[in-house]
Write a structure and sequence with these properties.
Elements (H helix, E strand, L loop, with lengths): L1 H6 L5 E6 L3 H7 L1 H4 L4 E7 L3 H10 L7 E2 L2 H5 L7 E4 L6 H10 L3 E4 L7 H13 L4 E3 L7 H11 L6 E11 H9 L6 H4 L3 H16 L5 E9 L16 H4 L10 H6 L6 H4 L11 H9 L18 E8 L4 E10 L3 E8 L2 E6 L4 E7 L7 E7 L12 H4 L1 H13 L14 H16 L3 E2 L3
Parallel strand pairs: 1-2, 1-4, 2-3, 4-5, 5-6, 7-10
Antiparallel strand pairs: 7-11, 8-9, 8-15, 9-10, 11-12, 12-13, 13-14
Helix pairs in contact: 6-7, 11-18
């Protein structure tokens, strides 16, 4: 009864957006659907147009529209928390002054790009006694949440092996990791493993319930999207000098003109000053300086297009993650094997099976199939990431309000093992050696 009284919400939580990009605005949209629970009262972004657009969207007073996180932190605290959706390499530098200023924090993943700055942010959260929640949204997708519930209930015994796989579709690979803003470690300070598979490494750690990883090894390269792999006749820009554009599977016209809404928040950011850009505007952009108009084989990308990771845990459990970019169908799958059963499923199918040994004559195993498509809430009002986005936003609001952390809640301490494993997996890949994990 006491806990329920402590959790009772008497007024909306107030929040400030820092970095008014796609991810932060997605979480902030919870305020539009649930104004009695969350209210956006300020923002910080160096882009003049985004400050205007986001400020107007949430009716933010001019005096609370800042250019930087530092400027925001320099004035007396006027909100409960911050939704930080800046780029990977900006997470720590923007978060440190906000924590010192007294704000709780919802922070996009990966929350750091290296081990030293990771620990600096963990220590800042502790020393300032602030709540910091990391945006591992797939924990909130009903698919993974229900699998975790069964693991936590002991349905398959002690987990002794975890296998996760992510297939990154050809158009996602091209837009994010070949032509786009995550295509170079020099630019975003994260390799593809952490930029794309931070979710998967977190899921592995979540399924292991805090058991410490002790060693990791990894292999991976960029084998596809290289100049020497370009087909004969390929130009520098798809719509300018390419002889094979009409037949090319990676044509910028096919990806971004024929699919005008897919990845629009990345591809057309240079046109955001135009209220309703026409097809002609978009074609001219791809012909000009828009990086998404480049040939996928002739970009400045240096991240891998496939990578495999092997992890050893303190209790003897092993885990693998395989990421492959350029596939026809995007998919994530998971297979957990325990001492008393196993769970296997594919996220995009929204179903999984729980299997147990059945030694009876005429039997081999029993199988319980769970189909989440029947629930009706996989997407709908709960947004992207298979229903995870706004469930995460709600859980953060509840946490800041004083509620108990949910089963999925990823406070910064809960995210350390996944990040540490990812950083050291990249070290293993680059140095071709097994790396011990000391934490």
């Amino acid at each position: 009864m006491i806990r329920l009284l402590l959790f009772e919400r008497t007024m909306a939580i107030t929040a400030v957006i820092v970095g008014a990009g796609h991810r932060a605005l997605t979480y902030a949209s919870y305020a539009e659907q649930h104004p009695d629970e969350l209210k956006i009262v300020g923002m910080a972004d160096p882009n003049d147009l985004r400050r205007q657009q986001t400020g107007d969207r949430f009716d933010i007073p001019d005096g609370r529209r800042f250019e930087t996180a530092e400027a925001l932190a320099s004035v007396p605290q006027f909100a409960d928390c911050v939704i930080n959706g800046t780029m990977d390499h900006q997470h720590v530098e923007t978060s440190l002054p906000l924590l010192a200023a007294g704000y709780d924090l919802l922070l996009e993943k990966p929350f750091a790009t290296g081990i030293e700055e990771m620990w600096s942010l963990v220590e800042a959260a502790r020393s300032n006694n602030r709540k910091v929640m990391i945006c591992h949204v797939l924990r909130y997708a009903p698919f993974y949440y229900r699998i975790r519930e069964r693991v936590a209930a002991g349905e398959i015994g002690r987990v002794i092996n975890v296998q996760t796989v992510e297939h990154v579709s050809y158009h996602h690979m091209a837009v994010g990791f070949v032509r786009g803003k995550w295509n170079s470690k020099d630019r975003c300070h994260s390799g593809m493993l952490m930029a794309k598979c931070c979710h998967d490494l977190d899921l592995i750690m979540w399924m292991k319930s805090g058991v410490r990883p002790v060693a990791v090894s990894s292999f991976g390269t960029n084998t596809q999207f290289r100049p020497e792999m370009a087909p004969k006749g390929a130009g520098e820009r798809c719509l300018v000098d390419c002889e094979i554009e009409t037949d090319c599977l990676y044509s910028a016209r096919k990806h971004y003109i024929d699919h005008p809404k897919r990845w629009s928040f990345y591809v057309w950011d240079s046109l955001e000053h135009i209220e309703a850009p026409t097809i002609e505007d978009k074609v001219a952009s791809l012909e000009g300086g828009n990086p998404y108009g480049r040939c996928v084989w002739k970009c400045d990308n240096d991240v891998v297009d496939h990578q495999s990771v092997a992890i050893n845990f303190e209790d003897g459990c092993t885990a693998t993650h395989n990421m492959v970019g350029g596939t026809a169908r995007p998919s994530r799958s998971i297979h957990l094997i325990g001492t008393e059963g196993e769970i296997h499923g594919v996220l995009e199918d929204q179903s999984f099976c729980v299997r147990h040994i059945d030694p009876r004559p005429g039997h081999e195993y029993s199988e319980d199939r769970i189909d989440l498509n029947e629930s009706g809430d996989v997407h709908g009002a709960f947004g992207g990431h298979c229903g995870g986005d706004l469930r995460l936003a709600k859980d953060f609001v509840d946490l800041v309000s004083g509620g108990e952390p949910s089963l999925a809640c990823t406070r910064i301490e809960d995210s350390v093992y996944g990040h540490l494993t990812g950083f050291l997996a990249e070290e293993s890949r680059e140095e071709s050696r097994v790396v011990q994990i000391d934490a």
